[in-house]
Amino acid sequence: MNIKNEVLVRVYIVLFFMCLIAMLIFGRAIQISVFEGEKWRSQGNEEHRRYRNVEAERGNILTENGDLLATSLPFFDLAFDPLSTGMTNDDWKFNIDSLSYCLAAFVNPDYTPGGWKFKLEQARLDSNRYIQLKRNATLAEKEFIASFPLFKLGGYRGGLIVRQHYERETPFGMLADRTIGYVRPLEGDTTYIGLEGHFNDVLAGEAGRELMYRVGSKHWMPVHNLTKIEPKPGRDIVTTIDINIQDIAENALLEAMQKHQAKRGSAIVMDVETGAIRAIANIGQRRNGKYWEIYNDAIGTATEPGSTYKLAAIMALLEDGLIELEDSIDLEGGVSQFYEEELVDAVAHGLDTTTVWRAFEVSSNVGIAKLVHENYGLTGQGDKFIKKLKQFHLNFKTGIEIDGEPKPYVKEAYSEEDDWSGTTLPWMSIGYEVTVTPLQLLTFYNAVANDGKMMKPQLVKEVQQYGETVEKFPAVQIKGRIASKNTIAKAKRLLEGVVENGTARKYKSDRYRFAGKTGTAQKDYKKLGDIVSVGGYQASFAGYFPAEKPKYSCIVVISEPQVGGYYGGSVALPIFKKIADKTFATDVDLFKALNGAQKPILARNQLPDYDVGHRQDVQTVLSYLKIPFETRTSNEWSVIRATEADSLKLLKRTISEEKVPNVVGMGIRDALYILENLGLNVEIQGYGRVKQQSIRPGTRVHGQTIRIRMG
Amino acid sequence: MSLGARIYAELRGDKVIWMIVAVLAMFSILAVYSATGSMAYRLRGGDTESFLVSHGMKLVSGLFLCYLAYIMHYMRYNRAAPYLMAISIPLLLFTIFLGEDYNSARRWLEIPFIGINFQTSDLAKLALILFVAREVTKHKDYIKDLKKAFMPIIVPIIVVCGLIAPADMSTATLLLITCLTMMFIGRVSLKYIGLLILLWIVVFAILIILGDFMPDIIRSETWINRILHFNPMGEGIYEVEQAKIAISNGQIFGVGPGNSIQRNFLPASHADYIYAIIVEEYGLVGGFFILGLYILLLFRVTSLITKSDKSFGALAALGLTILLVLQALMNMAVSVNLVPVTGLPLPMVSWGGTSLLFTCVFFGIILSVSKFVEGGGFTGAVATGGGLKSSSDKKDDSRAEGGNSKGQQSGGGNRDRNRGGGSNRDRNQDGGGYRGGGGNRDRNRDGGSGNRDRNKGSNRNK
Question: A46 vs B283, which has greater pLDDT?
Fold first, then answer.
């Protein structure tokens, strides 16, 4: 054959084969489209595949300094597909025995390893492509199971089907539980409660989408990583809540609730300068008598406040220049008649003529009611009084970031619609015929503490994403000044007077001063003829501390206490006091070091010679107390030596990590930490600092019991 | 004169191949735009246009590259082939050990400072085909000789394919088949080709064994899985089922452009399975049309070689075409589940970054060759002994051919001369429009070598 022809023949052969392949391909397309068309088209309908929403991880709710108030933990439903597409026969053969063993040992011991093997092999034969392994596995459990033989080959090859969902957790349990709230879908109608509800849009994130295809008759499997739209995780919200203060408030409230067998109670602690809510506790009694955060009364329940409202009445009088605190007033021994109604002072005081100031301190209903009645009611100037209440913002919602806040109720002057009568003004002045929520009243008291500047109560200070601030909510001033400087100064003196000499004097503290007003209100007061029925009492205390330079304001409201009294001064005030005491004790900003003054004699003997502690802690304390010291070691642990009169030296204290160390001179916290970490059992006697230890330093550790004597 | 007409007049080369390029590019825009519907939604929140723009830009730059490759005289590729090989082999080695992992295959290398990833195998494909075409034409007179002709061709083939294989067995095999076909056409003995196939089987086996030790570098596990799991009915394999659903949805005339449903369910619908989406949207008719375009390309290029059996240009063009068409057939065969998943894109049509650019260069070279062959050809040059006035093409070709042939092939030469008459006729029919500027430029460039060519030509006559 000549070359030219040889080439041509070969070219044609190539051409022929390629055309053949092309025809095969097209023939195959025809086969699929025409002859098998029905079958494939029916595979493409919705019966066989659908999209599923992929839940986004909900954002966290954080305390002021980043602790978790509410968070989402992932849980996993695990199943196995023995016919997964990527799995080879060899994969199956090599792994099935060890997998069965692992499943029997760690996942479900109801089957023996042999039983598991049989079950899995049977499923493979029966084309059962969905074998449930474990529901609600934690992340750690899921990771562990995913590391089993076969599963660890991953994806389609391993055959492990993982479906994730989230559960909401509140690590601090009851603390601020109702304020944190929840979002709960209920038969098509979702309930939105608390911060979870109000900030749902921020927290929820965006659901993703995942394609599922059907295996067998009822199970759906996700198509791995192909058409998945990743969910967008929600953002975090940082609240203003200080978990320490919250803990103090919640526990103080709970204790009192149990003591008084009360129905409901609330306590709020607010930062005076910013209106930031540091703690908000709401405790209610369940039918079984147990207490829990049930309803957010602090924000959502407006009641007749009683005597705590008197501050507003007297500020109105002062603001209108109608009275002075030194004016005298006849209290008529505590009983007075207003038209057909008799008004009685709650606590017998036996006073007749006294000053306005004193009348407020003893919380005389007669006194305040008479002042308002005479100055506004008898002169037909009720509208002026109402105007003042509005000036104090007592008829506005606070706009707190929780849904369901009611509008406070203040009657319009002489309005028939509001059943205005002759007794309305005197009764309003002592906190009846008006309603207000604890938070709204606290906002008013807080404004007084804040020199008249009314701050908007605030629960959320920022929105974060991945720890970065996305949006900040600065403190908002509702009103420049709710009353004149003069009036505010007088109001403060009145509130201080209540604690110094009045209804709250029993709880006066010698360590700091606080100011406030007690309140006791009758609930559901009914009068039919001569028969008077009282549905119960509401005890409250609103105030702030420290009195000189208010840092926190606080209100406590207890509804329907059953035992141990019902007065604001004996039920609510102790809670306020406890909150103030403990807050004071934990907040270094609130107290001053005492060593500014001249040193007492024998001061040197009081210096902590030979005390042992964590060097950095010791440095922090000494610096704070402004005691001069010299550090001569960079060791973790140090011993303090007082060599000269005024100066301390920090020297090295070696703490062995293998042998029993010398813990003499340490506080119990440090000593326990070190000894127990070494694996020793520790028995403690006495209190103070470690004086003696039962095992000599340098002894080898083998789990002995060491006795330490403190003194 | 309208712009279109002007371009048409300016462009020489095979008009049909130009049309094929244009139609494929159009289809590419339509199909990629449609198929990225779901991907765009996923990645960029619904901004399909950004994909369209990005793909359009690639196509435009691709067509520009195609034009550059086309205006270059194809003999330059002949000269460049050894250098390209010298660049490709180290790059392939570099990729194996230091390349970018993408979808668990190490095929990519980042171009420094530009930040564009490209598959080194794309460059290697081009280099190897040009090289094989060069070697086959160089040794064509004693092509059946094992030592002198076969070995210089076979060693580079095995090296390049062997280096591509660890990360990309499909491309390596495709390239090997293409080279074998080129050798087959270049009259290499069937015996040797069989030997080469055997050798490849040995390489494959070694790679599979090595794959156990170096799973990062050699994807032997994936190959075995794909091959063992291939089942012609595609039962239970998600992608295969979805592709079949797409094809069946299209029926005869398709659901219409942009109406594909399966793009939402079919992974890699813009690349591996784009043919299934095309059939869904344009029906069996559209599927046949696309298939036909590639086959038409094959026929057009084949006619080049029938015009000139011994030219480097014709063999290179045919080699590139076979690679393109084989790849297209492979891609379509995957879509219709004739073969296991290979991950090869549909040339010129699939979404696919830098390989699209290389595909365009392939087309440019093919067109460059067609420009000269069409013009009346190298065979004509031999026939008239370089005496024609517009003989730039001829000169160039005769230099290459003549230089290598050493006058041992007078028989062939005669036949060429006979065919030369035919080519002349072609030239006359095509008119002078395209000959002016281009012809002159070529003449100037190659003018200096004219004497040498003639000398060599006379050598042959000894």
Answer: B283
Termini Cα distance of chain A: 117
Phi, psi of B390 (to 5 degrees): -100, 60
More confident residue, A664 or A272: A272
Interchain contact, B309 vs A8, CB within 8 Å: yes
Average pLDDT over residues B222-238: 65
Largest CA distance in chain B: 74
> Is A548 found in the same domain as A622?
no
Q: How far apart are CA B362 and CA B317, in angstroms?
A: 8
Q: Which of A562, A590, A618 is the last residue of a domain?
A: A590
Q: A4 — contact with chain B (CB < 8 Å)?
A: yes
- Dist CA B383 CA A310 (whole Å): 122
Domain that holds residue A290: 244-590
Cα dihedral sign, A160-B340-B324-B151? positive
Task: Give residue A539's pLDDT band: very low, low, confident or very high (50, 70, 90).
Answer: very high
CB pairs under 8 A between A and B: 136
A612 and A575, same structural domain? Answer: no
Query: Does residue A476 share a domain with residue A395?
Result: yes
Specify the CATH number for the domain of residue A78.
3.90.1310
Q: Domain with A481 in it: what CATH number? A: 3.40.710.10
Total domains, chain B: 2
This prediction has a pTM of 0.61
Inside any domain, residue A6 = no
Using a CB-CB distance cutoff of 8 angstroms, which residues of chain B are in contact with residue A85?
229, 236-238
Judged against a pLDDT cut of 60, whether residue B192 lies above it is answered with: yes
The pLDDT of residue B440 is above 60? no
Asked if residues A557 and A572 have their Cβ atoms less than 8 Å apart, the reply is yes
Nearest Cβ partner for B184 among A14, A40, A88: A14
Please state the domain count of chain A. Answer: 3
Cα separation of A675 and A244, whole Å?
28
- Specify the pLDDT at position B385: 34
Q: Which helix (H) or strand (E) holds A146?
A: helix A139-146
Domain end call among B349, B380, B411: B380
Of B42, B238, B298, Cβ closest to residue A18: B298
Contacts of B259 (CB under 8 A, 6+ apart): B281
Q: Which of B318, B347, B380 is the last residue of a domain?
A: B380
Name which of A7, A88, A227 is nearest B309 (Cβ-Cβ).
A7
pLDDT-derived band at B46, boundaries 50, 70, 90? low
- The 10s digit of each residue's pLDDT in B353-376 is 778 889 999 999 999 888 876 544
Contact list, B309 vs chain A (CB under 8 Å): 3-4, 7-8
Is the same domain home to B109 and B51? yes
Domain range for B415:
393-461
Q: Are residues A642 and A536 in the same domain?
A: no
Residue B195 and residue B134 share a domain: yes
Residue A454 CA to residue A392 CA, distance in Å, equals 9
Q: What is the pLDDT of residues B307-337, one digit of tens each?
A: 765 578 888 999 999 999 999 999 999 888 8
**Per-residue model confidence as pLDDT tens digits over A670-681:** 888 888 888 888
Residue B2 lies in a domain: no
B345 pLDDT band, cuts 50/70/90, is: confident
Same domain, yes or no, for A566 and A635?
no
Residues A465 and A511 grouped into a single domain: yes
Domain assignment of residue B194, yes or no? yes
Q: How far is CA B408 from CA A117, A428, A657, in A?
A: 75, 126, 93
Is B410 found in the same domain as B369? no
- pLDDT higher than 70, residue A185: yes
Range scoring the smallest mean pLDDT among A401-405, A427-431, A609-613, B36-40? B36-40
Up-side HSE of residue B251: CA atoms within 13 Å toward CB?
A: 7
Question: Residue A333 is which amino acid?
Answer: G
Say if residue A691's pLDDT is above 90.
no
